[in-house]
């Protein structure tokens, strides 16, 4: 089968979610081919984080389904859902590391608990993944001893150690000081080049436009528009995305 005729690795079909009495996601569909990086942008409260969490079933959707490599997440019962979730790596804005564990034990823990690796095997793999994100010499340090950019790279190493088929990233650089953003974006760019499939909510449009083939603009729980960056971001395109990004760069100043 040629790459063009391969089915998508991840299909999100008609997801809806109500929280409290508010419809947060309204019939959202998208798909990712193997190796693609797609970018979610849009105003605060538009539903990006909720969508990523529904795809990972941290928040189960009310309607619709998520299909990974042709298998619906909800089809296989509880055990099947656990297996599904292990195949998707999730990166959060605030890193979600265990403060009482060293960097290498943060990475090794799921390998031991979930993948049942021996201690030696798990540590060996953890060190390899830390080296891959440029932290070969930081394995013994605790989160409190790491910069924000280093913490986020540990959390990326932890996700990679589980051999995910897809990674979901929720504004992975928005909690970082400006001078630390580049090191995390560099790791994400490298991952994308190595063929990782990713869906990433970010406001780093300058970065994203060079790596993505599709920007998905979400507003009020819906995909308002989606398309290649050249089409959506060109000045004069009149797109909501271009308008939003112009406002964003006014607020943040050039370079952010
Ligand atoms: N547990 C909850 N109960 C009720 N409403 C919620 C809950 N969680 C999120 N929401 C609402 O869902 C909407 C979408 O939030 P979400 O965090 O998905 O948006 P977002 O696009 O990620 O925004 P941001 O850019 O600020 O991260 C918001 O109006 C939020 O207040
Ligand atoms: Mg969010």
Shape call: globular
Number of strands: 10
Q: Outline the low-pLDDT stretches.
A: none
Determine the mean pLDDT: 92
Question: What amount of the residues lies in strands?
Answer: 15-25%
- SSE ordering: EEEHEEHEHHHEHEHEEHH
Q: Number of helical runs?
A: 9
Which value, in Å, is the CA radius of gyration?
Answer: 18 Å
Strand order of the largest sheet: 6-7-8-3-9-10
Cofactors, ions and other ligands in the entry? adenosine-5'-triphosphate, magnesium ion
Helix-strand layout with pairing:
Blueprint: E1 10-19, E2 22-32, E3 37-41, H1 48-55, E4 63-68, E5 71-72, H2 77-86, E6 88-91, H3 103-113, H4 119-132, H5 148-161, E7 166-170, H6 178-193, E8 197-201, H7 205-211, E9 214-219, E10 222-227, H8 229-233, H9 240-252
Parallel strand pairs: 3-8, 3-9, 6-7, 7-8
Antiparallel strand pairs: 1-2, 1-4, 4-5, 9-10
Helix pairs in contact: 3-4, 3-5, 4-5, 5-6
Bound molecules: adenosine-5'-triphosphate and magnesium ion.
Outline of the structure:
This protein is 38% helix and 23% strand. With 256 residues, it is α/β, with parallel strands linked by helices.
């Amino acid at each position: 089968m040629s790459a063009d005729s391969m089915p998508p690795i991840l299909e999100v079909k008609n997801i809806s979610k109500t929280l409290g009495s508010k419809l947060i996601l309204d019939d959202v569909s998208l798909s990712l081919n193997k190796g693609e990086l797609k970018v979610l942008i849009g105003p605060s409260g538009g539903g990006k984080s909720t969508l990523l969490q529904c795809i990972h079933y941290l928040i189960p959707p009310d309607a619709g389904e998520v299909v990974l490599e042709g298998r619906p997440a909800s089809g296989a019962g509880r055990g099947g859902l656990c297996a599904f979730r292990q195949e998707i790596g999730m990166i959060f804005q605030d890193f979600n590391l265990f403060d009482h564990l060293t960097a290498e034990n943060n990475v090794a823990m799921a390998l031991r608990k979930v993948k049942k690796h021996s201690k030696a095997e798990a540590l060996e793999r953890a060190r390899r993944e830390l080296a891959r994100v440029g932290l070969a010499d930081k394995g013994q340090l605790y989160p409190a001893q790491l910069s924000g950019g280093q913490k986020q790279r540990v959390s990326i190493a932890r996700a990679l150690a589980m051999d995910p088929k897809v990674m979901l990233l929720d504004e992975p650089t928005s909690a970082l000081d400006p001078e630390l953003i580049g090191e995390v974006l560099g790791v994400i760019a490298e991952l994308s080049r190595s063929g990782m499939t990713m869906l990433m909510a970010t406001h780093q449009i300058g970065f994203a436009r060079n790596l993505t083939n599709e920007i998905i603009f979400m507003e009020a729980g819906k995909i308002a528009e989606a398309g290649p960056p050249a089409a959506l971001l060109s000045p004069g395109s009149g797109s909501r995305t271009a308008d939003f990004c112009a406002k964003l760069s006014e607020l943040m100043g050039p370079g952010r």
